[in-house]
Batch of 3 targets.
Target 1
Amino acid sequence: MSSTAGQTYLDQFPAEAKVIKAAFWSSFMALAIGGLLGLVQALHRTDVLRFIDSADYYTVLTAHGVLLAITFTIFFLVGIFTWAVTTSLDRGVVDIRFTWAWYIMMVVGTILVGVSILGGVVDAIPTYADVLFTFYAPLQAHPAFYVGLVLFVVGSWLAGADWFRTWWAWRKENPDERIPLPTFMALTTTLFWYLCTLGVALSILVFLLPWSLGIVDSVNPLLTRTLFWYFGHAVVYFWLMPAYMMWYIMLPKLSGGKLFSDPLARVVFVLFLLLSTPVGIHHQYLDPGIAEGYKFIAMTNTMFLLLPSLLTAFTVVASMEHGARQRGGTGYLGWLKALPWRDPVFTGMALAGLMFAAAGFSGMINAGMNINYLVHNTWWVVGHFHLTVGTAVALTFMAAAYWFIPQVTGKELWSRRLALGQVLVWFVGMTFMSNAMHRSGLFGMPRRTAEPQYQGFDFEPAVGTVGEINAQVALGAVLLTVALAMFLLNMVMTSFNDDSDSLPANTYAGTLSGPEDSPAVLDNLKLWTAIAVVLVIVGYTLPLASIVDSGGLFGPDIGGFQLAIETDPALVLESVREVMP
Ligand code: HAS
Ligand code: CU
């Protein structure tokens, strides 16, 4: 823990605090725009209020997905990790200019991506990128979109290099010390980020970008899809790990106690490094062209991957219980009452954790090969990820911001009551929305469409009606937007707040069982990285080889679908015939 106790982060690391503040604000801007577009979609799909053209739905959905799943999450992550590394090593970054350089690179990437998508609805901008946040072929975007993504990802790579450099510098001065837990978490996460982003880098640089530039005529869609999901599952843990970090090192302290076990926390992060990547095929159970056996291997790995989250549930709840008992809590469940429910930082994170327990269940259902056939490509999946990234991650980040923004600005939070109300409204709104989405998926309501109600076809829910489900989604979406506005208002007002009398010190939770109880091998990052690489080779070599073997490296002659999002069925058929004669 930091030796300069009593001070805020801004007092300790004024230069780093500036970059972190900038990263947080970039994240909030993405949250504001992306969140608003979410409301537009929810009201459109449920037919409650329509003010966009259905043909523009994909543009809006792409912006919503990219801004929230990629920009909001990752900007917040780089802020938190920079805080975690510098605070726990008690030293600044090696060269602050390098830190600004990667931040600016990520901003430039984001602007390019954003403008490319905007071209879909603004005639004056000659770009298009209605490709959704998964951007795999045959959907094709303007080259600027891919270039923007590359800049953003390379920026995040450099951020990782920055944390490693800082750690290396610290290790020279402290050769015999264990890696402090927050730094350990940031480094293991960075390592699997490097491993998984290789897939998406390959997909963009070798296939999608040359294809969009017209350098190659066609691609193998299954290959680019598989490379995307090679990255696309691990990225969900990239979003989750900073939230887990908060649950491990903040929740115990806020609860009034200590982290139950440092060794268990290290085991969890090592397991994520090992298993986050060789599971991506669980997003492709329904893809023809991948043999069942490979899907089965991905399913088995996914089931093992539940373990670190189940361990997390145990460790974090045990730490909260320890805290509650320190505060005088007693009884089998009575200790829950002794938790600091009036603290928005605590309550936001605890509610996020509670929702993640439900999200874990829907994840397990997704992961089962046979039961996935029932829910794949339905609104169920959208319900699932609004509980995971949309709550476990987003709500934790918002709650964390109530603590972090005062730390990096030296200004007190404007309103704790508004903040407490905000996390509750988010929780209630998401309960309505995601529950209804899950239910609708069970009777086949499709995702990713502006017109889910297919003409001449009636959906039949087992319980309730389609109208009632739609009403719940719309109500949930409105509540979420209200919560978003409450959050942003509090953030803006905090930056104009002149009060700085009772700022909390920059500390995090101590441990009941500390690093001295952790086997030293857990800190052997080279060993875990090597095993992770082997698992990736085992999980992916054969499926990739067989995809290339049957579909060709650059595929059969399949052109791209560019702007043509047509809603008239006859015209859709015509455009499909054009590209696939
Ligand atoms: Fe997922 C689809 C399987 C976790 C995100 N997932 C998605 C998509 C997204 C996403 C975005 O196997 C859609 C992608 C697309 O556009 O197509 N997912 C899983 C599994 C897990 C899982 C097995 N997903 C996540 C996380 C995400 C995320 C985390 C983002 C952050 N998911 C799938 C599958 C699909 C899928 C298939 C494909 C579906 C299809 O067909 O398309 C697991 O990691 C979940 C493990 C979680 C647990 C819960 C542990 C509970 C904890 C809570 C502790 C409580 C606390 C609070 C701290 C086992 C840790 C206590 C409070 C008190 C008051 C005491
Ligand atoms: Cu996944």
Target 2
Amino acid sequence: MRIWWLIISIFCFVPLHAEDGSQLWLRMKRNAVPAKVSLSKETKKTETMEIAIRELRDYWNSPTAVTLKVASDAPGRDGFALNRTNNGISVSSATDRGVLYGIYSLLRLQQMGDSLQVGQTVQEVPSYDLRILNHWDNPNGTIERGYAGRSIWKWDELPRRISPVYEEYARANASIGINATVLNNVNAKPEMLSTDMLRKVAAIAKVLRPYGIKTFLSVNFASPKVIGGLDTADPLDTQVQAWWKKKVAEIYRLIPDFGGFLVKANSEGQPGPQDYGRTHVDGANMLADVLAPYKGVVMWRAFVYQASSSDRACQAYEEFMPFDGQFKENVIIQVKNGPIDFQPREPFSPLFGAMRNTQVMPEFQITQEYLGQSIHTVFLATMWKDCLDSDTYQENGLTVAGATQRRTVPGATTAMAGVANIGDVRNWTGSDMAQSNWYAFGRLSWNTELPAANIADEFLKQTFSTDERFVAPVSQLLLRSWNAAISYMMPLGLHHIFAEGHHYGPEPWCNVPGFRKDWLPSYYHQADSFGVGFDRTTNGSGAVKQYHEPLSVLYNDVNTCPEEYLLWFHHVSWDYIMRNGQTLWDNLCYTYQFGVDETVRFVKTWENAKAYVDAERYEKMLQRFRRQAADAEWWRDACVLYFQQYSGEPIPAGCFTPKHRLEDLMRYKLRIDNYTAAGMDKLP
Ligand code: GCV
């Protein structure tokens, strides 16, 4: 009797397939009867082609037959053509990888409830050659700035055990056009290049390869010293060069299609060529020479700054511009979207417009280090589009996208990088909505012209529901979420007023004795009794001069500077009159409150979406939206009350009443585990 009761209870009360978010946007229903798929005569059945066939057989649910074709006259560079005639659909490309992207595009249409009409052709060629994820994963399984568990790379088990997650990861990336990945943190451990580790890397590369994904590694510039036993890592030393040559030969023996190296040198304590009186060119070109015979590339990061007197925002330009045109063809300078560090809002980095003779690539941060981590919903396609669409004024209408997609020499590689938000939790990204940013990175690096609204719609329809009553309001939520976060965190060009260390909450007052000035919020906000903001005009740090005209002039003048960058470029008095007639102080208060109001509306929108979302994801996201709304009040109160000490002005009547007292907030220390999902109830 008891056992029957147990069995009945299990079947009645435990859902057979609890929704854990692990399927991401790939939620096609498997066919009961395999779909009709054939290969054209000349097309070889490679491993990649087998994946394409399998995906269609399993998930293409239309009676229309599909023919796959690799042909030299079809689109190249991973591009593809879809063509529907009365006889069926053909998917063609110059490569099997292109065919794979073609079939994922076809399946995407199907999932969104769209279809190809007879006579219709779709042709696509990706915006960048390399659409590359950067994992900041450490060999010990931790992830720098990771908020979704531990690393998916299980180094202890490799190469013996190959986790099935690697193939799921490869498939998810291929489905959105990502074709490369850097497995380890830019703060690289030298042991990543040990033979033991390389064998493990090779085992991962083998799983990723059929999905068209190339494997790259971040390298520590001091590796020849630390693991090579040499007494120097000087790039001009012949023994050092020989060490790298031998190491690279070993890598290519194990991984014949290895992509190359990502290097963070002479930045935040990492070793680099400057340790030996050499330059970034010396370091990058030495590695480029070693990789060139294998067609490998070096992605050399421009994220460099010293604790010097010069404005941190100016330093990447100052260090790299003198070398424009001196880097080897297979070097790409990897530049963060803004001149400081993935802040909620930054103007685009002036290097994009400045470097004319050097291949430059944008680096975006998918993981939300500075944007509420895996708690806040902030859809980043809007932010990335804002950067990519910015006119650099280097030449007529040359945008950041244009400047980075242009080849400086015929053989150069173009690329766009995103710092991954992936970990080993079941839903990959901690928050189910944060999957939208992984998705958006893939889709945008494939096609920088895609509007953010289309990407939001695609994601929501595939991941949650195609019902317009769900898609329309939640898509609006996503599209407004970046502006909301800026408003409740750092409006009007404020930046880097985060709590030290974890970068989750506000700490405009933060002062760590003995700390570098450029690691403290007061360096960035410069609040005093006159006003607030960093003077980067020609009277200040001169950062405006790094932009081409008319931007330099526009940014330099407080009256023409876009208000979203006002306090980025200017130190402005509290009673300065904004374009809407409010004083800066009043406007700041109203903008913070607008951000809070938006998050309250997001909670409502999500509550109204309940009928269209499974209970598990609904509940988990509801908790997060509520926490985001509470955090927004925390941000508002901390910043407004702190700045009020300098402005001496009251909060405008009717704007808001603070929920917290400044002295309580200043005493509050967020413990590192408080901002994981488990600690969501622990607010200041
Ligand atoms: C990988 C910021 C982050 C660091 C990160 C660094 C970088 O400073 O806080 O964690 O280090 O950027 O991009 O190299």
Target 3
Amino acid sequence: MKKFIHYLLVFCFVVSCKDKSTTKLSQNEVVQNTTLTNFDTQINDLMAKMTLEEKIGQMNQYNGFWDATGPNPDKGKSAKKYEELRKGHVGSMLNIKEGVKQVKALQKIAVEETRLGIPLIIAFDVIHGFKTITPIPLAEAASWDLEAIKKSAQNAAEEAAAAGINWTFAPMVDTSRDPRWGRVMEGGGEDPYLGAKIATARIKGFQGKNLSSTKTIAACAKHFAGYGFSEAGRDYNTVDIGTSTLNNVVFPPFKAAAEAGVKTFMNSFNELNGIPATGNTFLQRDVLKGKWNFNGFVVSDWASMVEMIAHGYAEDEEHAAELSIKAGADMDMESYVYVEHLANLVKRGSVKETLINDAVKRILKVKYELGLFEDPYKYCDEEREKAVTGKQEFRDDALDMSKKSIVLLKNKKKLLPLKKKNQKIALIGALAKDKTSPLGNWSLAGEPGSAVSVLEGLQKYKGNILKYAKGVDVITVDSPTGWSDKAIINETDTSGFSEAITLAKKADVVVMVLGEHGIQTGEARSRANIDLPGLQQELLEAVYKVNKNIVLVLTNGRPLTIPWADKNIPSILETWQLGVQSGNAIAQVLYGDYNPSGKLPMTFPRSLGQIPIYYNYKSTGRPNGNNVFWSHYLDEKKTPLYPFGHGLSYTSFSYNNLKINKVNNREVKISVNLTNTGKVKGKEVAQLYIHDLFASVTRPVRELKGFKLIQLNPSETKIIHFTLTEKELGFYDNKGTFVIEPGKFEVFVGGSSDAKLAQKFTLE
Ligand code: NOJ
């Protein structure tokens, strides 16, 4: 408390009689009788002392690429940035992964060398874990387990905060229907309802109840908005979508994020209907800060302000700055256009200073809530960092999350779970031995090689004879980050095939670990083909020729097209990229020590031509037909390979007795009986979908509106209850107004979006 008052008083010191821009407020200049009322007064007092340049400095975020603990940079961009920092012209820094020592050194410059001593807010892409890398967000989404997802974010926040981080650029809440887009690995999948629930869970996990705790960090809902709809799945590409999709599919997870109290939003690289998101007033001022009443701040995406020139929307850098501030972007990440042009724009009268004041106030408020004014070094405790980083509890939770994320796609011959004794197991695939790929993309602070491989996980089971052969390399990469634009897929080297085939011939069961390397998804990792990369399909078919008892363990960051495998391979397990505990989780599921319960958060297409394919599509006027004139393909089914919500278990479940119990006051109560009809205990994600049969704006054939995770012993039955309220029954019309229309609805309940059990009701 003493420190708190000390810093506030320093900021509140009245300098009216001195030249604002040059007077350095000494730490001793404490005004004894300042009354501290509330946040607004304190920030207003502080802002009254700031020069225009210092205010704009708060709106400037730099990449922390230079070593603040080493010699000061004396030339080039780093030197300039260093000077800006010392002048108080930097409000935030990102990408400091070296931990407390480095953060403290930078914070020290901000606090001790700048005139007003305003602390920096330190940002980082804590996307799935910090050092203890957890499953990629798409994998966590497959758990449908909101408590586990929240816990995972909570742990990530604690570990990051202990390393000096105050703010994560997560969660990414972009709904996407296009698995070619590499960033689907960062999100919650294709569904706005599930996406909104996950967004809320992750924000609550990161931010906790008290943002100033040293275990929590500020979250950031990104990328506002429409990024997941980048045309043809090509990253950064144009987005052109109508109001219905925008309001009903893209916005809901963002709105949920705002309602959950997320402290920041990030705008986006893409243009939306002709206007780049970064310069988009409708998105940032009208919807976010207006309609949704968001009172945190908006950060641009990396250089997205200056990129508006390439978009053909801004004439030059100065124009980019003007468009961005007017549209509601509060902080400039690495475009340098605010720090270089905003002051002139204000002085010329092109930009009102009130806009700057509003942005700065929003930024200072988050710093204040983080407790940085109370103690700028409160996140900089090296002892805590040592004690917290990689602690066992995080690893245990990461294992739990990993197991919950795994989806059993197919199990025909009941090859799974594997027998624990007297089996000869051939483990094949370069990814089975890989200890870095399971970390996935966006694992910036993770240690390469820190994941338990599938080989290591399986080796813990001693009852069988386990032998390994690589078969084929997936990538031939020259940099561990995969930043190289050179071809990284191995398309030529088949030298490992024969060893794998020989091994498979002698095995009772072959476990093949195939898929995408961790660096093949994520930002800028769009793929025009989403099959097994490189020579893995050839390897799979070659092994199949000598042994048909194959368990295919997929590891990937997006849905893949695997029609051949689906047709021929008896058991397929989707394991995504699971982080540090990957191999342990996969082994426990393969051996049945954990019964899988994950469900797909994204549709798996049969072939590329079906994309975009998603479960909540519209009917069309010709959904079925006998002759050629109906909505279909001549050369492909129109159904997916695996639908949204699909996922099997080592037991089986049956649903019956679906009842609509009450329809009044626009509230519908629904119940259904769920029975475990198999031989082992298992968990099921019971899903409820509705279809609004006719409406003033057509509604999808199905929309997820409820789900429950239910654990059942063999032969046990439970009655599951769902309630639909106006929130679930209504939709946004084409003017963006939420409406609830009376009429007929159909309800479906089951274990996937293909649920067959249905009932109808009418809303008065
Ligand atoms: C660009 C990405 O689009 C964004 O998601 C990320 O947070 C920033 N870079 C910072 O790394």
